[in-house]
Amino acid sequence: MPAPLTALLDAAVRWGPAVPAAVGFAIALIEAVVLPRRLWAKGAWVVAVLACGVLASADLNVQRHRARIAAKAANQTEVSDEIAALHGLWSQWDALSQTLPPVDKPPAASFDTAKDALASLSAQVAQINRQINALRDQSQVRSIDDLMAAKLADYLHQFGSFPVVVSCAPSDVEAYDYANQLVNILRAAGWDAHGPEISAARPGAVAMGVSVFVRDPRSPGAAKILLDGFTRFNIPFQSGITASEAILDNATVELFVARKP
Predict the structure, then answer these.
(1) Which of 37, 61, 188, 237 is 20 to 30 A from residue 80's alpha carbon, by CA?
(2) Which of 106, 139, 172 corresponds to the end of one domain?
(3) Are residues 165 and 74 in the same domain?
């Protein structure tokens, strides 16, 4: 709607009730001056009309004041209802957030104004989005697809057979399944693979890639063959070969699968 027309309508709403009263007052005042023949009667009628006009004006002002108060109260009620609705929605999102893994400190919430309520709701939604992303990352399991597993087994098979122990973190089903897959690949390659064995020697270890341990890193032997195979077929592993006195001979290699970060 054009601005001039909007301003005209606002003025009509604001002054509309006063127009009939003003017209009636003007007519009454003219009649009070014209119709009575005697001067004292004219004065009395004029005073009476003026008094009525004053009372009518006062009444209009009172009605406007009451209307403004009522409109303000209605507006405050509407805003309060909106804030209450946003608070209820925030509570639902907060309940959902409690069921997801925590990623950082929950955002502070304020509902003093509608603007604060919207900001709190927006922060809660962003928090839940981060939690969902973290949960999605945690739910992804490590695995080697069948084609890549067959290629790795064929690659290792050409080097003969070596003793390998595959271990994994305790009480971690995902790590156990991945370690078991490595055992199956090594056995398919004809290697002397054992496991998965549960190892508590490295408590709290967290890593995506496989860790390689030997008794003497200066004689890598089969460990270097495994690392070359992992590199060739893009299988994640921890850089380097680590010494471990728990391994009893130089020929045996241990592959350790830690908890996934």
Answers:
(1) 61
(2) 139
(3) no
Please give the sequence-ordered ranges of beta strands (E in DSSP) within 30-82, or none if there are none. Answer: none
Domain count, the chain: 3
pLDDT value at 197 more than 80: yes
User: 10 and 92, same structural domain?
Assistant: no
When mean pLDDT is compared across 3-7, 148-152, 243-247, the lowest value belongs to 3-7
pLDDT at 183 over 90: yes
198: closest CA among 237, 223, 172?
172
Assess contact for 218 and 137: CB atoms under 8 A: no
| 212 & 227 share domain | yes
- C-beta separation of 87 from 110 below 8 A: no
Model pLDDT for residues 22-61, shown as the tens digit of each residue: 555 455 545 545 555 555 555 555 555 555 656 666 666 6
pTM of the entire predicted model: 0.52
| φ and ψ at residue 114, rounded to 5 degrees | -60, -35
Strand order in the sheet with 192-198: 192-198, 163-168, 253-257, 211-214, 242-243
- Examine the domain organization and report whether 150 and 237 are in the same domain: yes
> Last residue of a domain, which of 139, 156, 175?
139
Structure tokens at 242: 């680590």
